[in-house]
Specification:
The protein is an alpha/beta fold. It is about 50% helix and about 15% strand. The chain is globular and about 80 Å long. Residues about 130-145 have low confidence and may be disordered.
């Protein structure tokens, strides 16, 4: 018989923390804190859906701090966004440390751990590599006097700043610099020569940050660094047994992104320029020729998923891989120059990336692999009229990786405001690797601690059932544009328009500016943060945009009373990774569309609808202008993923409700 862990202690600590912070315990907060404490004690993984306003940060931080201080073993907290990292480190953790210190054996410590590329590299600055790496810039920039001058000014400023800063942290540089400028004075973890070999190792900003994290009770990091720690054989994070993943709905996409390799003219050009000055000219020329042949081939190839690589592309890719390997061997054989250690390491890293990615692509088509574990596709990106060809390879699924490298190593708490899809945790659990089938014995459970919002009384879900189904071109029909104008007029502005594409957002914004008497902003006209600020400051303003607004807007109060969703946010039907995952599920007897595309749409819909109620006093409407939300066979599945708003298809009643809100 299993003894239920005592959660009295954590309940008391939560009450003390909330009291010291001048707040009150919120609905679901105690339940979540007790569930987290139970999982920390039993080792059972936990998925917690905690609606906006629950106070989930306190609910997991209080038991995390208590465990870390009382056991002297750190807890790692991973987030997806910089905004939440800053909230935790700059606001929540300092206040909690003060509040809980009288209740604990000692005052808790905390630290923020970022990737090495976020810090100045003293070896690169003082060893002259910052000047040499200017050669890594795209060729067109070398002939752009403005860009070159700006780059030089930035590097000079960063070099001077390296003598003044105590942290070397890019986020503390005001004003900031462009990525290409920062790249001249920083290195990735793989490019670093190592503290013991580096002349500046004892003063290294990244090493100092890592040392602070190694002594902390709570270490805050991001999903990308968590993925690197799980995928690579290098321990990036401090040793830990307890892990909290906030914004856990983002975990799979972030891990997939880190695990994706690519080959393009840009990345291959960098590898060549870094290595050419370190080997004999004949080796460098052969590598350059292999790059030219390969990049020309992928430029001429049709974009899309590559079920068959083809004999010609296979040959060119094999030559590229072997050539990169020979240049790598040539660098190893060359006499070591301590002053060029940083440049040498950057070159080796770039060459290894080329070799490893090429090998991974070629191995994906090997006869010894009956079940493909990687997906290969070719992208043709357009940028200012210039076409770029990029060959990409990504894992079909990261479930096994997460299971073996994350869940088998630590007790994990996964939390977000949106984790249930179609009313259950099953879809997310499968994507994380916690649930593989009926015979699965993973120890995990999911709980929904609810929300302090009375959704049925505070919000209306309006589905415009009378509208024609959306077309494939991504732009709205005349009937949809009429509907938008009528709804925004009834609301008196105060509208967040969430669109499935930037093209649709811009086109609708242009039409609405001619038809409405209230201001309309559109994403891309200024920084997203500046647009959100202007939207929040003027009750009559509307803001239209795409993906980042679906998840990144927190505007409580009268400025937001209508959330418009132009269409169900299914992934692109030609997305190579999505279609490959659907086909893999269908091949094993499952419903690929529901498991992948519908789940993706349901999660985004829940995120978008979650923009409406950000405070208990908020009121408003979520309007979905896609009739399939009422008529399609999967409509019930999608609606089950949304908060329990009062639902209607009566547009007149909705407009009347918006008019009453505007007049209130």
């Amino acid at each position: 018989m299993t003894t239920e862990p005592d959660t009295t202690r954590v309940t008391g600590l939560l009450a003390a923390a909330v009291s010291a912070l001048g707040g009150s315990e919120r609905s679901g907060q105690v339940d979540m804190a007790q569930a987290v404490e139970r999982s920390f004690s039993t080792g059972e993984h936990l998925a917690v859906q905690a609606g906006t306003g629950t106070g989930k940060s306190l609910a997991y931080l209080v038991p995390a701090i208590a465990h870390a201080v009382e056991t002297n073993r750190p807890v790692v907290v991973s987030t997806a966004t910089i905004a939440l990292q800053r909230q935790l480190v700059d606001r929540d953790l300092p206040r909690l440390a003060d509040a809980l210190a009288p209740e604990l054996p000692r005052r808790p410590d905390f630290a923020l751990l970022k990737g090495r590329g976020n810090y100045l590299c003293l070896n690169k600055i003082h060893g002259g590599a910052a000047d040499e790496s200017a050669e890594d810039r795209p060729q067109e920039e070398l002939f752009d006097a403005v860009a070159s001058t700006q780059l030089g000014r930035d590097v000079k400023r960063l070099t001077e700043w390296s003598s003044d800063t105590e942290t070397g942290d890019r986020d503390e540089l005001m004003p900031g610099v462009l990525d290409r400028s920062w790249g001249q004075v920083s290195v990735s973890a793989r490019e670093c020569i190592g503290a013991t070999r580096c002349e500046y190792g004892s003063d290294c900003f990244a090493e100092k940050s890592k040392a602070l994290a190694g002594e902390a009770d709570v270490v805050v990091t991001n999903h990308a660094l968590l993925a690197i720690d799980a995928i690579s054989d290098v321990n990036v994070l401090p040793e830990h047994e307890l892990l909290v993943v906030d914004e856990a709905h983002e975990l799979v996409d972030r891990v997939t992104s880190v695990a994706t390799g690519e080959l393009s003219a840009t990345s291959l050009g960098v590898a060549h320029r870094r290595s050419a000055r370190l080997v004999e000219s004949e080796l460098a020329q052969r590598f350059e020729a292999a790059i030219a042949t390969f990049t020309s081939a992928i430029f001429d190839e049709e974009p899309g998923r590559k079920d068959n690589l083809g004999e010609e592309l296979t040959t060119y890719l094999t030559v590229l891989r072997d050539s990169a390997d020979k240049v790598r061997a040539g660098i190893d054989m060359a006499p070591a120059d301590p002053k060029a250690a940083s440049a040498r390491n950057e070159a080796v890293t770039s060459l290894n990336d080329v070799r490893d990615t090429a090998t991974r692509v070629l191995d994906s088509y090997g006869p010894a692999i009956p079940d493909r574990t990687d997906v290969v596709w070719l992208d043709h990106d357009e940028n200012r009229g210039n076409k770029r060809a990029i060959l990409r390879v990504a894992p079909l699924s990261v479930a096994s990786l997460l299971r073996n490298r994350l869940f088998d190593q630590s007790t994990v708490i996964l939390t977000s405001a949106t984790l249930t899809v179609g009313g259950t945790f099953d879809a997310m659990a499968r994507s994380w690797g916690l649930q593989f089938g009926a015979d699965d014995n993973a120890k995990w459970r999911g709980i929904d601690v609810g929300s302090p919002f009375a959704h049925a009384k505070s919000g209306i879900l309006y589905v415009a059932k009378h509208l024609p189904p959306p077309g494939r071109d991504g732009t709205g029909s005349s009937e949809q544009l009429d509907e938008i104008a009528e709804l925004v007029t009834a609301a008196g502005g105060r509208t967040l328009g969430l669109f499935s594409s930037m093209r649709a957002a811009k086109a609708t914004a242009e039409v609405m500016r001619d038809r409405l008497d209230t201001p309309v902003l559109c994403q891309g006209e200024d920084t997203t943060s500046a647009l959100i600020r202007r939207f929040a400051e003027d009750d009559e303003t509307s803001l239209f945009g795409t993906l980042s607004l679906w998840q990144g807007v927190d505007v409580p109060g009268a400025s937001l009373s209508l959330v418009l969703i132009d269409r169900i946010p299914f992934p692109r039907p030609d997305d190579p990774l999505i279609t490959a995952r659907q086909r893999a599920i269908a091949a094993h007897g499952g419903n690929g569309f529901m498991a992948v595309a519908a789940s993706h749409a349901a999660l985004l819909l829940a995120q978008g609808a979650g923009r409406l109620l950000r405070h208990v006093d908020d009121r408003g409407v979520v309007a979905v202008l896609d009739s399939r939300m009422a008529t399609a066979r999967y409509a019930g599945y999608l609606r089950a993923s949304l908060p329990p708003f009062w639902s209607t298809t009566d547009g007149a009643r909705v407009r009347a409700a918006l008019e009453r809100l505007r007049s209130a």
